[in-house]
Amino acid sequence: MKVVRIFVPSDTTALSLGADAVAAAVEHEARAREIDLQLVRNGSRGLSWLEPLVEVETPAGRVAYGPVRAEDVNGLFEAGLCSGASQHALFQGRPEDIPFLRKQQRLTFSRLGLSDPLSLDDYIELGGFQGLARALTMDKEDIVRWVTDSGLRGRGGAAFPTGIKWQTVLKAPSSQKYVVCNADEGDSGTFADRLVMECDPYMLVEGMIIAGLAVGATQGYIYLRSEYPLAQRIMNEAIERASQAGYLGEDLCGSGYRFDLEVRLGAGAYICGEETALLESLEGKRGMVRVKPPLPAVKGLFGQPTIVNNVLSLAAVPFILDRGPQTYADCGMGRSRGTLPFQLAGNIARGGLVELAFGATLRELLYDFGGGSRSGRPLRAVQVGGPLGAYLPETQWDTPLDYEAFAAMGAMLGHGGIVAFDDTVDLRQQARFAMEFCAVESCGKCTPCRIGSTRGVEVIDQLAVDPEGNLALLEELCETMTDGSLCAMGGMTPFPVLSAVRHFPEDFNTQRESTDSRESV
Amino acid sequence: MLHIYEPERDYGTPAPLPEYSAGYAALETVELTIDGRAVAVPKGTSVLRAATLAGINIPKLCATDALDAFGSCRLCLVEIAGRKGYPASCTTPVEADMAVTTQNGKLARLRRNVMELYISDHPLDCLTCAANGNCELQDMAGAVGLREVRYPEGGENHLQAEKDHSNPYFTFDPAKCIVCSRCVRACEEVQGTFALTIAGRGFDSRVAAGSEQPFMDSDCVSCGACVQHCPTATLMENSIIEQGQPEHSVVTTCAYCGVGCGFRAEMQGEQVVNMLPWKDGGANRGHACVKGRFAFGYATHPDRVTTPMIRDSIDQPWQVVSWEEAIAHAARRLREVQQQYGRDSIGGITSSRCTNEETYLVQKMVRAAFGNNNVDTCARVCHSPTGYGLKRTLGESAGTQDFDSVDSADVVMVIGANPTDGHPVFASRLKRRLRAGARLIVVDPRRIDLVQSPHIRADYHLPLRPGTNVAFINAMAHVIVSEGLEDREFIAQRCEQEAFREWLEFIRDPRHAPEQMAAVTGIDAEALRAAARLYATGGNGAIYYGLGVTEHSQGSTMVMGIANLAMLTGNIGRRGVGVNPLRGQNNVQGSCDMGSFPHELPGYQPVGDDGVRSRFERSWQVELDPVPGFRIPNMFDEALAGNFRALYCQGEDIAQSDPNTQHVEAALRNLDCLIVQDIFLNETAKFAHVFLPGASFLEKDGTFTNAERRISRVRRVLTPLAGKADWEATMALSTALGYPMSYQHPAEIMAEIASLTPSFQGVSYARLEQEGSIQWPCNDAAPDGTPIMHVEAFVRGKGRFVVTEYVPTEEKVTRRFPLLLTTGRILSQYNVGAQTRRTANSAWHPEDILEIHPHDAGDRGISEGDRVSIASRVGETSLHASLSERVQPGVVYTTFHHPISGANVITTENSDWATNCPEYKVTAVEVRKATGPSVWQQEHSEFGREQQRLAKGGTVEATQDAAGTA
To answer: How far B90 CA lies from chain A's nearest CA (Å)?
Structure first.
């Protein structure tokens, strides 16, 4: 009897939507029908709104059904799931033909959801470790130059050229250097790092090994937020298997080089996503922001030269080394080269991962990909770049998604998180939330951030009392935080606040509901 | 200048440190402009410091030059041409051609708005605040021109936060905290204890001791660095809360340990308000410990005896008399004794607690007025082997380095010392260096704090058996020689070849191999080999040692063994290396230097040397006895034999501090005349016939010399309570004895010392006033003094290796006495405790405790807190026991700060073969559960009560020393 391969995703999104129950139901049905089932727990393809997205292998390729609930499974089998039958309401056709996926440019996420994330064979078969193989034939300087030439910039949000950072670490004299991966993915509406770690973990391992080779670092740490237990399990297993297979440790791939990798868990502080606070935390200390200079590239972890890169930056590296810097640089616009994995979230019909070359517009993302609001009401505001990102009104949705273009309008792309709001949103509440978030998550080191954010909440609460005076005070407070804060936490909290004030003044200048703000405390 | 109250200038960030390698490379100069003014500063200087140096004051709160830049307060923001934003000037290093603007409208608004945020969470009680008049927050609010706080009333705040009164010396008022982290950073960077942290996040961030505990329950050692560096009244001395801000200050030197910290005594009239470590103090560089900073209240304690007293016998009540009568009586009794028993029947003991000038006078009086050389000092019982051992090998009886040297050490070996308790301020400097990466070898029977404490871990802890030091040091040298790790060039150029060859022959013998010696020392051979390799090859190797080296039957041998090891590896004569005795008392180095030994005149000049003696005879206008006199133990023995009949003892409590208390007491009871000069009616005074009230260090002028040979001024800030400084009392006694002395000021005494002592030739009060301190030798050959000795050549010319054969002590464990007792000090108390027990320091250490390993305790049915008897072949006492794995099985440990503990009732009169330094560190004992105090303790209490009653015949109130049993 012919073997039937069925794929049920196993990342956190799919699991939270019942993927395990779906998988159990699939096995149950197969047994009942005496079908020789090969169940693959693959990663997600990043089409969150279709999760759990069940796929079946057919002679014509893989066919997808979604979103599947356990109770749908029997009907799917009845309808001919095993042969890829199209007569079912959940039938989505070939996944790569789903427009949401078809229209993307998946360079980094090319393998996303194709196979069992922990299968080394699959990873290699799908082009994995080609970048590393190339890197092992190159000089350090050349690896760094390729990364520089690719135009890759820090995907954590600061957009600092990755190659230049690597160059600094390479040139820093020291017998011990480190590669630290910032996997403290804490921005609202973001999940791309998690998808890398849960669905394509070897890509991150490979990226970090290459970084180590490039600068002469022998130890890597993945600083992972504690809220990602599944990513922790998968990364640890991947590191273990990669070590067994000789990709890590002493004399990796017989090259004579050494690189070890370890996952370290954070403790739930947003500020530990800031690179210097992350390093403090990694050293076992309280996560407090360090002053720069010295840069971590010169004096980082345990005082040694350290690459600190976001998951997405490191994940882009294997592609660059495999396909050459120009292939990557050919995508994008202006000084923003390559692709950015956007993450569509919030009040959006079709949420998920959208990897696109720089240059598309928010409107395309919101409507062509996202399909408008989930509630069906008109979209009113979009926050881009996490909790410190600006709220953008519709008038700005045609701006090309590009670091410089966004900076020019007082916004930022950050880590590519996009949170959509419909017309029921109260931007004064959102501004207040921005201050409150800062008050809770500030490391407490610098005064504008530590005290200013709390005063910001209070001033917003008092807007009804003296709108004009308090609005002026709020603006001056925001100036103090922007110009006076030690790091981006306090320095950028004014972005969401002031953008809300500026673009949605109608939410601030009424005498209405002076009580509702209290209720939400 | 030193007498006006003026907060010391704060440059905001520390001066940049040049890298030390073969020598200091001079720092490159960077030129920039600040507010249009051309400024040139060394590379690595912060913009803030550069501005301050140029007289431009940028507002700041979290920055202070004692701590690394932190950048949290955001007041010191500036504009730099061509740079984005407003960088904090404290964290921004200068760069060539930088153009900095420190003041403009934008910066003013930023600073004012930041200050407004601070004040929105700060009580507005300035007028009644303890920091009023000395508050940086207040100053900065003024500097930035804050006029109103616009934020809504009733906002979140910390104004109701509760005060922590747990520490007896300071109060923590979190309502006033601005979370600048200066306290936390001081605890980490300066003190190295890591007791403080910031708890909570965001607005909830607050300073916390330990795991948000009261300060007294945390790891806090009460060094006071946090209090000193707090810019507000959040951490505030209770004395200032009670008394208010000082109005003048006087720079002086601490009277506790041999570190010799410089202090500003901050005064209101004749009242000491606060002791603030002096930033320019060469030994302490602005830091202090719980004793020096806080424990000064003893100076005005009601127990102070402030009138002379006399009596004919010790069972009579004391009679209060005038100075004239007391002096005349004392002189008469001394002369009577001499007439009856001969010139050599009397003697004197100089004090390591008193000034150089006072010590000099006492020995001068003994030699010139008593007419003999019966003078000794407490160094006899602590570091006399150091003097002997270093003189013989290197040529000078003192440590080779200054404390700054530790900043350049790569490998530090601590032998028989517990710096975090005994020499805490040096320990902080050492720990700072260790945190920066220096390696550490600890050689000690106990697991002292340095072995493992926050951010410090010894690379090797070699827990040797007490009494086996020489076996250990020989094994170290054997490893280095047998593995060819010695510094041949250094030895060839700097050392005596013949002595070296002889020593080499000796040390090569396989019997010294660590594998052979392991059975003796108990040290794992491999660990010892590794430690020896590290010391020999790890870069600059520095040895610091304490009384665990000297107070042994082979104390002098061990000191020479240490010197051998340093010469063998070339670790002498430059920064970062050396042989460094950590001296016990504030002026024990000075008392030795000042001729307190029966065989040596000031400057270690032999009394038997005719040339030397004749110079002194000319100056002193008297004929001197060429024959060395009695050492302290000889005095006791001779007293018991009836040949030694009268003793003048200044500022030393021999009845508590010397070994075999019952022997000492018997000797004291045998004296016809015991004259005690002290600030308290101490243990020894209970046996005295004449009591001369002493003056504390706050009541007199003079100098102390610390462990790094640093001569520092002690300045009078109070009128002597008894009307005379100690040197004045000695002058009076000498004059009454017919040898007149008439110095108007200690400066004149120092001038005389300088004229007679080659190593002090260049020392004068005028220079000390100018330079703060001078390290001897200071003379034509070393006009600026000598921070580091033996640089070009050894003082004796060539270094001399001395054969150091290990001879086991006679004090051996037996079936009857199967445990070894070793003794030491604790941070909060000081030696015999006469001072610290009369301060709130007793909150930390109200009684001496016996540390015993759980195995030994288990064998004996002893549980935590049990009262146990400790018996040796000479005596028995009792203490409460604490089970601790800090001691190894077979070893028990206690401190000796409380008289009733009777630690020295059990120590024996075994002593160093060369110097008679007692073998305090090794006593064979047995420990048993006890039901109550020992017989000695009961008698001691009874005698104490009796003496208390007799003292009440005078004007003296009850003394703590005499108070009942623990």
So the answer is: 10
